[in-house]
Amino acid sequence: MPEVIFCPGKTTEQVVEIFDSLAQKGNNVLATRSSEEIFKALKNTGKYQNLMFDNLCKAILLKQQDLPLSKSSIPIVTAGTSDLPVATEAKITAEAMHQKTELICDVGVAGLHRLFDKVEQLQSANVVIVVAGMEGALASVIGGLVDCPVIAVPTSVGYGANLGGISALLTMLNSCASGVSVVNIDNGFSAAVSASLINKRAEDAND
Amino acid sequence: MPEVIFCPGKTTEQVVEIFDSLAQKGNNVLATRSSEEIFKALKNTGKYQNLMFDNLCKAILLKQQDLPLSKSSIPIVTAGTSDLPVATEAKITAEAMHQKTELICDVGVAGLHRLFDKVEQLQSANVVIVVAGMEGALASVIGGLVDCPVIAVPTSVGYGANLGGISALLTMLNSCASGVSVVNIDNGFSAAVSASLINKRAEDAND
Amino acid sequence: MPEVIFCPGKTTEQVVEIFDSLAQKGNNVLATRSSEEIFKALKNTGKYQNLMFDNLCKAILLKQQDLPLSKSSIPIVTAGTSDLPVATEAKITAEAMHQKTELICDVGVAGLHRLFDKVEQLQSANVVIVVAGMEGALASVIGGLVDCPVIAVPTSVGYGANLGGISALLTMLNSCASGVSVVNIDNGFSAAVSASLINKRAEDAND
Amino acid sequence: MPEVIFCPGKTTEQVVEIFDSLAQKGNNVLATRSSEEIFKALKNTGKYQNLMFDNLCKAILLKQQDLPLSKSSIPIVTAGTSDLPVATEAKITAEAMHQKTELICDVGVAGLHRLFDKVEQLQSANVVIVVAGMEGALASVIGGLVDCPVIAVPTSVGYGANLGGISALLTMLNSCASGVSVVNIDNGFSAAVSASLINKRAEDAND
Amino acid sequence: MPEVIFCPGKTTEQVVEIFDSLAQKGNNVLATRSSEEIFKALKNTGKYQNLMFDNLCKAILLKQQDLPLSKSSIPIVTAGTSDLPVATEAKITAEAMHQKTELICDVGVAGLHRLFDKVEQLQSANVVIVVAGMEGALASVIGGLVDCPVIAVPTSVGYGANLGGISALLTMLNSCASGVSVVNIDNGFSAAVSASLINKRAEDAND
Amino acid sequence: MPEVIFCPGKTTEQVVEIFDSLAQKGNNVLATRSSEEIFKALKNTGKYQNLMFDNLCKAILLKQQDLPLSKSSIPIVTAGTSDLPVATEAKITAEAMHQKTELICDVGVAGLHRLFDKVEQLQSANVVIVVAGMEGALASVIGGLVDCPVIAVPTSVGYGANLGGISALLTMLNSCASGVSVVNIDNGFSAAVSASLINKRAEDAND
Amino acid sequence: MPEVIFCPGKTTEQVVEIFDSLAQKGNNVLATRSSEEIFKALKNTGKYQNLMFDNLCKAILLKQQDLPLSKSSIPIVTAGTSDLPVATEAKITAEAMHQKTELICDVGVAGLHRLFDKVEQLQSANVVIVVAGMEGALASVIGGLVDCPVIAVPTSVGYGANLGGISALLTMLNSCASGVSVVNIDNGFSAAVSASLINKRAEDAND
Amino acid sequence: MPEVIFCPGKTTEQVVEIFDSLAQKGNNVLATRSSEEIFKALKNTGKYQNLMFDNLCKAILLKQQDLPLSKSSIPIVTAGTSDLPVATEAKITAEAMHQKTELICDVGVAGLHRLFDKVEQLQSANVVIVVAGMEGALASVIGGLVDCPVIAVPTSVGYGANLGGISALLTMLNSCASGVSVVNIDNGFSAAVSASLINKRAEDAND
């Protein structure tokens, strides 16, 4: 497991101090929902070499471990382009946990043919992450196509009766497809942790 | 248009009295969300011959007009067997408006293959009614498959975070497929009125 | 159908890239909830001639098809001036689908006489779009006056117990007038798609 | 003011005891949301002569004062027949406060012509009570037709997105017509108290 | 009645244009929830002399009628200083309707002694407006102290479980004191219209 | 502390078994939200002598400890008679914790004079429990009158916008009086535990 | 995967008919949220030998496959005795999927010592199911103790601000422990499917 | 008790004026949810010497009383660093009431070992304040570890299904540990007042 900092509500000084103390343990360090300001403050300490900042999801990752990636890849599927920031948070988190991932974008249910091109790939996975806003129906559809666990991430993409993501969240919780479990709205991080733990056990077992 | 009575909150006496006065206009009369008790009270008046009662949706229909049914049929699609009462209310309402209908049951998104057998039939319709509870994803999927208007009816089938049908309602309102409009939870009646008006205009026009 | 991009949550670069790939199909392209910045970026590519930007609803429309407009017009009725941005999104969308529209503004239920001047016009339509915020009562009143389908669009105009448009949404979903179906809050786009599909079928049929 | 008991949550014994102690003050006594069981228990005490029970709204009224009714009448307008229990609670309460009332039933907005027959009557009142469930649009329409205060009572008549009356409540609170104020769902009692106080002052003043 | 414009969602140009057309009728014109920018734009037209702008509640009032104020005064009671903007909107609205008002500030229920100094004044009124945020308990307490109608205005003052004023709104709707009716959150305007209509009838009657 | 069983969701057999195992520890045993059936089943075991059942709040108490009651009494104040079941649960719980209590009933804010007779008594307490439904304003008023901590219990007494007690809960959470903390709706038990712990420490300290 | 029927909203005849057609495929058949009436109707067909009915969770299971159970066991942990019906649904579902399970009951966070006795057992699992109502804190605590995925099931055990399980649901979705994903309220079935798929892959891999 | 001003919704001028009038009473004065601008305005009056401003929680404190602090300390426990602003508001409030406090930070339930180091300290307190956002489970865990009253403060730290702190609020209200009572979201002030009143009585008693 990487060390993790959830940045909102913390001052830049507080994040830098916590980051420093966590980094000393030697694990990867991940700061989610960060800002460019915090990234620069960390950079300016001059302490970190492998420090990267993702501008879409505002995550900072310090790689301190050089373990090989998993052999099987975790598909991260999004309904639309607007779901990319959340999918990217999932991708970076999984990488911090040494898991290979594969982004499959823009395959929402209004155009099922795009999804069907990817079915085989999805069916060979140990676990699938589905990221969708608006009505979030993609999780149910994928849940019906695969026989591995699906981790569903509702996003706040949408407006009005979307209620800041509550609509997609409820959709996923009520999924008529079995094998779907759900994390908090926009929580790419948590989805990736669950998926990584699942993928890891399936792989470790295979060794 | 048939004469319509929404029964909840009315005493049997009130319904019978209203029914009598409406029946005298000579149109079909439809009493929704009724009860067997009300049906028997109407029966016992001895006034009505063509009086039928549907036990699934508790609707009473008095047919007084013998107009031919529409040529093209309105598909009424349900996600599951539990959505049948609502679909039946839609069916009876459409019939009271002289529209042919076709029930397509149990084609929820967790098993898309069952839906795909029906695609051609759906694509040839002037309008489609989709009835679904749980997460209500079926409306979006069908919306993406047809190019006619879709009237979506969320049902209260489900439990917990289903919130009495609110989950399916929100799903349908946030549908990423265009051409989907929505009626109240379990409101098979209103969906059928909208769909009948659409189907009628498309047909009338063709004459 | 035009090609459509929902802009929120996408970077300017992403929208431009998607716009380019969609434009190549030769259909009209519509980008909703856009921004002047995106419009300028598209303009600056020098690729598009018939590119227009509506400042009220922030929609970008690229007209690439020169089909004749529908003969019958779709009335788009608003309760107040503040509902105009949503009504305009509906108008532009309908036009992108080759439908004639007619804006009827500021005829909210607090002054029914203004509405009554327009009743004949409404009663001759194949479908009516009603756009209203605050308590959204206009949809029910119009639903009682016409015998064609009504597509109701709740808007977020209002404050307090308006709950960002939820109040008008609930009003419309519970409409005691039949033949009213509803789209998401502020979703002028979706209302126009449904209405255009209805109007088209009624007209095509007449040919 | 009459003495008033709100019965739910109280045992029959508790209501009888409270009723007895209140009756001794000599004012009218009103027990709302009561039951036939409580009525019989009061009857059986043999203490009360002018005791009446209304079966629709479950109110018990003991008339102990013989004051003349107000000269001007308070119109109590309902959207539908199912709103009658609440309208009746309002009627009985107003009578307990010596106010004349006039029930105007079943004039919901889906059939405005029925309402328009009553406009003159409404416009001559000092205050109007509007009782409506479903989407509750009637309050706004009447608010736009009269220039006296309107007391709006949302009812729980409806289902699904009606949310037990919340939909009508929100509609009334967001009314675009001015001069409309609102009481709790199904609270015919409180509407009648407010309206009676208003009517009384307008009349007293005239003496 | 004054002419009224609700400004949010309207451009400055739209407000100025509407204002101009309403002003020509010769009545007072009130623009609520306006802005200094709109006020200046109106000022700059050079058309209006008696134009005032209230900075607390952002209302613009054009006085074109010189009628005498009512003899009896409407008390506008606030729980705290933060409720003043809403109370001021009520005050200006009442004045535009030629009603005398009296602000009684900062008498919230946590310090009842401050309220008790004002009881006599409240008890001599024809109607009382109560403006309160947080838990909004003041309306119930005043409702128990006076025997005239109380118009309660919940405000959005507060945070957290205040839910933007919903807490105070619910409190007032559930008031155990009778004779309390409620308007939308922060809706000082509507409270003043209701109260003015009541006060006017009580006074007119007295003439 | 007594041993406690929360009965809902448990079968009679389960409650009896748990009760038996807890009783063996020698402490008082309290079963809340129980039923007469469970009480009889416990009675029928023949094991318990000091077993009592309160019919109002459905609590079963087995007294096995004979400690003296506290010297100072905890006032349990209710707004209305319908709040008595919750107040009684608090009373029995406090007694199971060896605290003296005093019920002060029916002193809701619509009639403040009844409350004012009790002020001195309230001001001499170490802690006060306030039990109120409807709008729950009593907690704020008492919080403003005493300078000891107030434990507020919202009850589900009411209807409509009361939302099953949510209204009173929000009122109490937003109390403008300081020193008020809140427990779950109808949770007389938890209020009594908090109040007893407070009273105990204040007394122990005095010894 | 077993064949599964969700019974609510279906008539006994419908369930029996669906059961029959599913049973013919030769897999295990599971009917959740059933009733004794349905069980007897199935029994009476005389077709099924290995038919069992669980009275706590109302599930019917027809075992038609005799595969060996998994080697590693899935712990199903409950906060309290009242959560047992949901836990039992999970247990039966997992067994229908050939997974060994282990019920660990009544280890809620108010008494952490009972949980700590089980930590080792939990830490050796491939996946843990946590079933908790009230405030649902147990999922977070266990999530912090193990490094395998946790499937959290909120239950509707509780009252008042529990909101029918919404409280526990939100708790689990907002868990500060990573690796926790959530299913619908009371959905023991779905939790077991997810957990079984995870456990299976981990085991299969080991073979 | 200190004099207290809740600043939101008040202009700088209003706060300064209120502050001045309260300061003349000679008690400590606390202005919560203030701003640096207000602090400077007060500073610039030149009237106050012991005026401090806390930048984390934006509180202004004027110390005018030099009473000794309490002997026993009130632990203020936070789940994470982001909860510090609320904890600091509690700390300053308690100090304004002459109570000693002790901040115990970052001991959330995902890492229980950090909490367990502090158990003894918590168990020796008269009252504990728990400040937690996200899922707010810490209150239940601490409630199970101590036998003194716990005042729980939900914070708005979190996102998505956190609903601005509602999730943590519900968690705490439904706590399965007894002796926990709750204040409004982010209301460090009110928690500190309750806790100070409790601590004071326990101490006073000991003298």
What does this structure look like?
- The structure is a homooctamer of 207-residue chains.
- Chain A is an alpha/beta fold and 207 residues long.
- Chain A has helices spanning 12-23, 36-44, 84-96, 112-116, 119-123, 138-145, 166-173, 188-206, and strands spanning 3-6, 29-32, 51-54, 59-62, 73-78, 100-104, 128-132, 150-154, 180-182.
- In chain A, α1 (12-23) packs across α2 (36-44) and α3 packs across α8 (188-206).
- The longest helix of chain A has 19 residues, at 188-206.
- At the G-H interface, α6 and α7 of G face α6 and α7 of H.
Task: Name the descriptors.
homooctamer; four-stranded mixed β-sheet; 207 residues; 2 domains; 8 helices; 9 strands; alpha/beta; 19% strand; Rossmann fold
